[in-house]
Each structure stands twice: as structure tokens, then as C-alpha cells.
Specification:
Elements lengths: L3 H32 L2 E2 L7 E2 L3 H8 L2 H32 L6 H13 L2 H12 L6 H8 L16 H26 L3 H9 L4 H29 L3 H6 L11 H10 L4 H31 L1
Length: 293
């Protein structure tokens, strides 16, 4: 048991952030839940419709399900780039003798660049007229037949808007994983090398099990951020062409502020919250089962 003074000190320091969290996070979620049972255009009186918004969302809205599938594809691409790239770079950094700080700075730089700047940068990279960097590189290596307007092609637009988001946060997750790798006991690795263990064996049997708690946290962060991804896809394509790059977040935004259907938009926002909670639960379940195996 903590002394009464210690408990008071803990409460004093915890109360402000808890109040801020309640006002900034919990209250909007509860407000969205409340509005999801109404039909409201933002001006007229609220009209109670019960579960009609949810019924329409789950059974009668094809755009919603298209956006849901796109969001899963967006999530998959972001996770592969962010977590895969972060793990590879962090592992390589542990073997660097020089230049670690420079590499860490270069990889972290996208996380501090303005989202608008990143969106416009990749619009130029993907551009066909004038020819952007990606199409120039394809032409230079003899793959000019693959040149296209990447943001206007329904077959490539989802991947095209996912790559900037993945690139943006790879450096952040790389730093987290790199810090965890530095905490792995070097004696275990040295003993494994003396026994003839390969680098892959050292990584899978020693390094990764030690960083598993950090890895779980990183996966949860990357998953929830990707499921709530909005700014870069919205700035680059606004969900187009058609609904090829429409995500649940962009669809929710347009439903609220373009169609002024705040009740239905609130039901979509509630679905996004539930989706994130389910994803976190599945991550815990899958990774814990593997750790117990």
C-alpha cells in the first residue's frame, strides 16, 4: 500500500491528463454514439431513428463496404512498410559502427514533415504529366511500359496513397524497435555465436523474444493509426477515382461535412472505434498465443 501522501501525489499528477483525455477523447466518442441514433443535418432538430443508421450502414450502403475493404488493404500495405521496414532498418543499425545518428535522423525526418507537404510531394512523384520521379525511374531502367498516372488508375491508387503513410512513420517505429534491440543482453548473443548460431537463429531465438512486448505495442500503434488514416489519402485523391481509394475515415468526413448527415457519419465513426478495439484484441490474442506456443 502506498502512503497517503504518495497516493495524493499520484492523484494530483494523474488527474489533469485524465481530465484532458476524458474531454478530448471519451466525450467525443460518447457524443458520436449518442448522435448515431439520430438523423441530424446540423441545423434542424434531432430526429430519433434508433438503429436505422446502423442497419443502413451494414446492409444497404455499398460505398461503406467498399471503403471498409479499402481500409483493410490500406492497413496491410502500411503495416508491411512500417513494421517490416522498421524491423529491418533497426536490426541493421545495431551492426553499424558509424553513421547511426545520421541514418536515424534521415528515417525520422518524414514523421516531422507536414502532412500537406508529404501529400504534394508524392503527387509530384506519381505524376505522369509532367513526368514524375517514379515514371522517370521506370523509363530509365527500360520499364517505360509501366508508366502511368498512378493516382488516376483504379488498380494502383490504393497502393499509391498507402505508400506515403507507410513511409511517413517507418522511422518512428524504427527508433522504438532499435531502442528495444539495444536492451537485448549481449552475453546471450555472444554465447550463441560461439556455439555456431547463425544471425537468423540469433534473431529468432534471442532478439525477437526479448523485444516481443515492444513489438506488440508497436503493432498496436501502427494498426490503430492506419485504421484511422485520413489526411494523406484525402489530400491526394479525396477517395477517388470513384471510390477506389475511399477509406472509412474519408467517407465519414464527406458524409458529415459534404452531405451534412451527421447522424449517419457518427455511426460510421462508432464503427471505426469498434474496429480499432477488435483489431487490438486480435493482435493480443494472436501474438500471445504464439508466445505461449
Amino acid at each position: 500500500m502506498l502512503p497517503s501522501r504518495s497516493r495524493t501525489a499520484v492523484l494530483v499528477f494523474l488527474l489533469p491528463p485524465l481530465l484532458l483525455y476524458g474531454v478530448a477523447v471519451l466525450f467525443p466518442i460518447l457524443q458520436s454514439l449518442f448522435l448515431s441514433f439520430f438523423s441530424w443535418d446540423g441545423i434542424s432538430d434531432l430526429e430519433f431513428v434508433g438503429l436505422s443508421n446502423y442497419v443502413h450502414m451494414l446492409t444497404g450502403d455499398t460505398i461503406f463496404w467498399r471503403a471498409f475493404v479499402n481500409a483493410l488493404g490500406y492497413l496491410f500495405i502500411c503495416l508491411v512498410i512500417q513494421l517490416g521496414g522498421a524491423l529491418v532498418v533497426a536490426s541493421l543499425l545495431t551492426s553499424f559502427r558509424r553513421g547511426r545518428e545520421l541514418v536515424k535522423t534521415l528515417y525520422l525526418l518524414p514523421a516531422v514533415i507536414s502532412t500537406v507537404a508529404i501529400a504534394f510531394l508524392f503527387q509530384r512523384i506519381y505524376s505522369l504529366d509532367p513526368v514524375g520521379l517514379l515514371n522517370q525511374l521506370l523509363g530509365a531502367i527500360g520499364l517505360g511500359g509501366l508508366e502511368r498516372s498512378w493516382l488516376s488508375d483504379v488498380n494502383t491508387v490504393l497502393a499509391a496513397v498507402s505508400v506515403p503513410e507507410g513511409w511517413r512513420f517507418t522511422g518512428l517505429y524504427m527508433l522504438i524497435i532499435y531502442a528495444a534491440l539495444l536492451a537485448v543482453p549481449q552475453e546471450l548473443e555472444e554465447a550463441a555465436r560461439l556455439d555456431g548460431a547463425s544471425r537468423w537463429t540469433i534473431f529468432t531465438r534471442i532478439r525477437f523474444p526479448h523485444i516481443r512486448p515492444v513489438w506488440i505495442t508497436t503493432v498496436i500503434m501502427a494498426t490503430t493509426y492506419a485504421l484511422r488514416g485520413f489526411d494523406i489519402p484525402y489530400l491526394m485523391t479525396n477517395g477517388g477515382p470513384g471510390q477506389s481509394s475511399e477509406l472509412l475515415t474519408t467517407y465519414m468526413y464527406k458524409t458529415a461535412f459534404t452531405s451534412t448527415n451527421y447522424g449517419y457519419a457518427s455511426s460510421i465513426s462508432v464503427f471505426i472505434v469498434i474496429e480499432c478495439l477488435v483489431a487490438v484484441g486480435l493482435i493480443f490474442l494472436i501474438l500471445r498465443r504464439r508466445s505461449d506456443a
